[in-house]
Amino acid sequence: MAAHASIEAITARIVERSRPHREAYLARVRGAISRGPHRSVLSCGNLAHGFAACSPSDKAGLAGDVTPNIGIITAYNDMLSAHQPFETYPQIIRDAAREAGGIAQVAGGVPAMCDGVTQGQPGMELSLFSRDAIAMAAGIGLSHNMFDAAVYLGVCDKIVPGLMIAAMTFGHLPAIFIPAGPMTTGLPNDEKSRIRQLYAEGKVGRDELLEAESKSYHGPGTCTFYGTANSNQMLMEIMGFHLPGASFINPGTPLRDALTKEATKRALAITALGNEFTPAGEMIDERSIVNGVVGLHATGGSTNHTLHLVAMARAAGIHLTWQDISELSDVVPLLARVYPNGLADVNHFHAAGGMGFLIKQLLKGGLLHDDVRTVFGHGLEAYTIEAKLGENGTVARQPIPDESGDPKVLARMEAPFQSNGGLKMLTGNIGKAVIKISAVKPERHIVEAPAMVFQDQQALQDAFKDGRLNRDFVAVVRFQGPKANGMPELHRLTPPLGVLQDRGYKVALLTDGRMSGASGKVPAAIHVTPEACDGGAIARIRDGDMIRLDAVKGTLEVLVDAAEFAARPLAEADLEANEFGMGRELFAPFRRNAGPADQGGSVFFS
User: Which domain of life is it from (predicted)?
Assistant: First the structure.
């Protein structure tokens, strides 16, 4: 077990809270396992449909019960830079499977939308619920019951959490996640942010802005800042779903292909037909989930995972709470400085030692459970390595050095960048919220200022352009939760609020919407629960109410007489404009049935 007493105590609390749900989940998984290789239950007609398009040799293998078959779930599309590399993966996987005596079939494709493309657009209101749609689409692909293991090709924001929910739902199957890696380094992220602020102030035009954005997002692979997509990759490795060293190798390189081939062969090795059977639902447990949270804090990861990790855990019968996440943040130091928490990007992080160095340091500090199962075997010690290209195009691994390749990017346990992870839960008479302060200067951790209330982010932007925001204030942007409009990200607020903060004003954001992994230097209390559309107290706040956001004590209060505040009627919003257009009408059932943000904002776990 992990040596740190707080890590052990929080893990034990999660185990106890989850016990009835986890036991029921494992009973279902083990019942599915006990029925053996699943093609044996298919009728001849079922099976013939399942391999009709296969080669004669693959048909022969699939006709029996002794040749393992991998189901490929792919999020490929060629509009998204992070997923474009997956175009060639199925053939690489099929060839590697045949070399190892197995078979692989694309079981299904899942949607993969880009929050960068839909930012501030109507399509962003589909974003959070795309996670649940992705889980359902993957479930459809795997429901054909033809497979002994599954490999998941996905990288970005909602895609990996959706695929993870599917992997837990099909927990009787081994599961390996195969990444595509980050794009090479382009325009520095701080320079991109500077141009965005200049554009918000009207000091540069659209041409200059587009040129900067294009130099930043310039090729295949994930965006290089440390947002939700790269937080996903960190999580999959530290939770044992990636092969060691796989997360941050650039696309289109020989090592990237070698890791894909190795993952395929490993997937075949851990099926029920082999000697190392590793069903995903049994592999992941409460310790794995805690390891994921620890990694999130140590790297200053995405606030989106206060939604996604909760939902991912629930899919495995594990009940993780914001309180657990916040208390883990108190004992996990920040060991990485990657934009927006620093100037480096994920390529610099990887070059400094990356996941191997991070895991080694966290194990040394007793902050990770080493005694977990992974797709690579038992224990996280095997992940304290650096992956290299070996002989004949295979993967070679060597121990990671004890020293960071760049102490300004990746720190040792003895000299962290800060003593905590910077992701906290706030509570008070407004409800519950989360805040990420790893990129917020200490003097801005407490803000007390009058409220300015907005019903959407456009209203705030209009007020900024009109010069009405040159003052201290807390921007209250409400009716942005899952039930209201699908909980879109509100990143269009970042440049104007950043400008106002740079002008010397005390500003903060309070919202039942999201700010995601790129939330940066402005203090932002986000994911407020209950949301305004669900009777939350945020709907009682009025212009001029004093708001106190205290990230030191973890409190969020409206400084109004309690009786007066409780007696106020709840504000209402006209949400008709959010009901139609860009597919939003198709997601009306999701909005109606969405659970609260602190339970993952999901239609599955309300």
Answer: Bacteria
User: Which string of DSSP letters, residue by residue, matches 223-248?
Assistant: -SSSSHHHHHHHHHHHTT-SPTT-TT
48: confidence class by pLDDT, cuts 50, 70, 90: confident
Is 600 contained in some domain?
no
- Alpha carbon distance 361, 411 (integer Å): 9
Write down the pLDDT at residue 210: 77
Closest to 104 measured CA to CA, from 120, 90, 116, 114: 90
> Do both 363 and 427 map to the same domain?
no
The alpha-carbon radius of gyration of the chain (Å, integer) is 24
Q: What secondary structure does DSSP assign to 68-84, as a single string?
A: -EEEEEE---SSSTTTG
H or E element, residue 425:
strand 423-428
Q: State the burial class of residue 527 (Cβ atoms within 10 Å of its Cβ: 0-12, 13-18, 19+).
A: buried
Instruction: Give the pairing type, strands 103-109 and 69-74.
Output: parallel
Token pair belonging to 93: 């996987």
Q: Are residues 394 and 504 in the same domain?
A: no
Residue 539 CB neighbours (<10 A): 22
Q: Are 549 and 447 in contact (CB under 8 A)?
A: yes
Q: Is the same domain home to 366 and 440? A: no
Domain final position from 399, 414, 442: 399
Strand order from edge to edge, sheet including 69-74: 103-109, 69-74, 149-153, 175-177
Tens digits of residue pLDDT in 185-224? 887 777 877 887 888 778 888 888 878 777 877 889 999 9
In a domain, 602, yes or no: no
Helices (H), 420-478: 457-465
CATH number at residue 542: 3.50.30.80
What's the pLDDT score for residue 201? 79
Residue that the structure tokens 């002794």 belong to: 66
Residues 156 and 259 in one domain: yes
Quote the domain boundaries for residue 481.
423-577
Cis amide bond preceding 68, omega within 30: no
Contact call for residues 134 and 159 (beta carbons, < 8 A):
yes
Q: Are residues 390 and 432 in the same domain?
A: no
Tokens 């390749």 map to which residue? 405
114 annotated to bind ligand: no
Mapped onto helix, strand or coil, the DSSP state of residue 150 is strand
Co-location of 385 and 436 in the same domain = no
- Give the number of other Cβ atoms within 10 Å of residue 298's Cβ: 28
- The pLDDT score that the predictor gives to residue 36 is 64
Considering the domain boundaries, does residue 593 fall inside one? no
Provide the pLDDT confidence category of residue 518 given band limits of 50, 70 and 90. low
Structural domains counted in the chain: 2
Average pLDDT over residues 585-590: 96
364 and 449 inside one domain: no
Residue 180 amino acid letter: A
The per-residue pLDDT for range 119-136, each reduced to its tens digit, is 889 999 999 999 999 999
135-173 pLDDT per residue, tens: 999 999 999 999 999 999 999 999 999 999 999 999 999
User: To which residue do tokens 């106020």 refer?
Assistant: 568
Q: Is residue 549 assigned to a domain?
A: yes
